[in-house]
Amino acid sequence: MNKQTTGFYEHFERKDGSRTTTYCPGCGHGIIQKLIAEAIADMGLQDRTVFVSPVGCAAFCYYYFDCGNVAAPHGRASAVATGLSRSLSDKVIIAYQGDGDLGAIGFNNAFQAANRGEGFACFFINNSLYAMTGGQMAPTTMAGQRTTTTPYGRDVTRDGYPLHVCEVLAQLEAPTYIERVSVADTKRIMQAKKAVRKAIEIQRDGKGFAFIEVLSPCPTNWRMDPLKSAEFVTNEMEKTFPLGCFHDRTNDAMKRTPRRATTNLADLLGKGAGAEPIPDHTFRERRMKFSGFGGQGVISLGMVVAEAGGRSGRYVSWFPSYGPEQRGGAASCSVVISGTEIGSPAVDAPDVLVAMNRPSLERFTPTVRRGGSVLYDSSIPLEFVPPPGVHMVPFPAGKIASDNGVSKAANTAFLGALSALELLGLPEEDVVAALTDSFAAKPKLIGKNIKVFEAAKEAAHSLALSFKEDVTEKEGAARP
Ligand SMILES: Cc1ncc(C[n+]2csc(CCOP(=O)(O)OP(=O)(O)O)c2C)c(N)n1
Ligand code: SF4
Questions:
Q1: What is the model's pLDDT at position 330?
Q2: How far apart are CA 226 and CA 434, in angstroms?
Q3: Which end of the chain has a smaller Cβ tally under 10 Å, C or N?
Q4: Is residue 356 in contact with ligand 1, taking CB distance under 6 Å?
Q5: Which ligand is closest to the CA of 233, given by its number?
Q6: What is the pLDDT of residue 14?
Q7: pLDDT at 243 over 70
Q8: How far is the CA of 65 from the centre of ligand 1 (A)?
Q9: Which one of 12, 29, 34, 215 would you pick to mutate in the ligand 2 pocket, going by the greatest count of ligand atoms within 8 A of its CB?
Q10: 373 vs 325 pLDDT, higher one
Q11: Domain assignments of the chain as residue spans, ordered by start
Q12: How confident is the model at residue 474 (pLDDT cuts 50, 70, 90)?
């Protein structure tokens, strides 16, 4: 039970019924977390704070802190905090990571976030090993230090040198504040308390990235009692990791312009209507996949569809997936057009699949939702049995493109078909505007592509009547 700060829940009620923290006696995690909890409560920031919990001994922070919480996968707390701080710019975002978590698997996430000066406070708990998994060597394990994976001591010629994360980040221009502290004794805890508050104040004031490394005892894996562990931090760890402030640009840090996540592709591309999406619960969400060989233009086709959605005031997402080869390998992208905010840009069961080559036709058709449609180039033989309730539409996209003098514009022909068959749920003028915009850098191609688009529409119109009837019937069967 906690009575001293409202930054923590009053009771730590864990799922398994226990009511204490998971920390061993003498562990530094509990001390540093208490400093953070007190700071957010004392500063009145609790309702504005989102804490990003790591993997490792501190994985259960969400049972302790009485504020918003997101549990990040191993090493990803800085990446998750980046997303949160960009989309919730009025919130105080705190990432909390161990030295295995941040120093190894997640180092690049933290390093790049620091280099961009993201708006969150990152607490980096250095206990010199991977504690939760049984005391293996971490990037911060000191030269000669014994761990379960360095039983004879860390040999720097084999295992490399301990990573000085503060010193590395201090080379960057963007961070506002970087300090290394310790929780080994009262004097040091008082200094740590100041640093914690400062890092959180920087968030409150929107002044950018703050990084606090905390030297923290792990009596259990060090096989020492709590007192000896605290002495070890001061007498041994501080030799390798000297305490101090590495960087303090708080006074020069301009209040940063809040960063917003780009929800509209038109904003992202810096062109088009740039309008905010308008919530519309009556609009049926369309989840689409465009697939083919790299170089066939499937990625750009998806981009044009997404931009057309943005122009129409819909919520859109565009999610590409590239094969290793620039040309010839598999490429696909997923596009979602929705009347409300999109939960996930991943499309596992598309309503509409455009398959521009045989491998993607064979691979993705079985994933199409019952009642969905597959548009594929009619030159591809259909040599498998499609799933029941899926509408297969062979379409001569390649032929239409070459007949109109731009053999590479089969993707534009598919766009014409999608528009004519009303599979996008978007006004045609927005589709045409997005198509036109996509050739801003190659204006000579605009006219040719519009010609292909029109020819494809005409060809699709001849399919449309029977197609629509069929879809209605299948949708009727699929949707209760
Ligand atoms: C992707 C992934 N790899 C490995 C693990 C296993 N794992 C769980 S905790 C942990 C080490 C955490 O060490 P550290 O970040 O130093 O935190 P501590 O336990 O010392 O507080 C590892 C490797 C995992 N959960 N996920
Ligand atoms: S194993 Fe170490 S880091 Fe983990 S809770 Fe125990 S003392 Fe703390």
A1: 78
A2: 65
A3: C
A4: no
A5: 2
A6: 75
A7: yes
A8: 21
A9: 29
A10: 373
A11: 28-248, 265-478
A12: very low
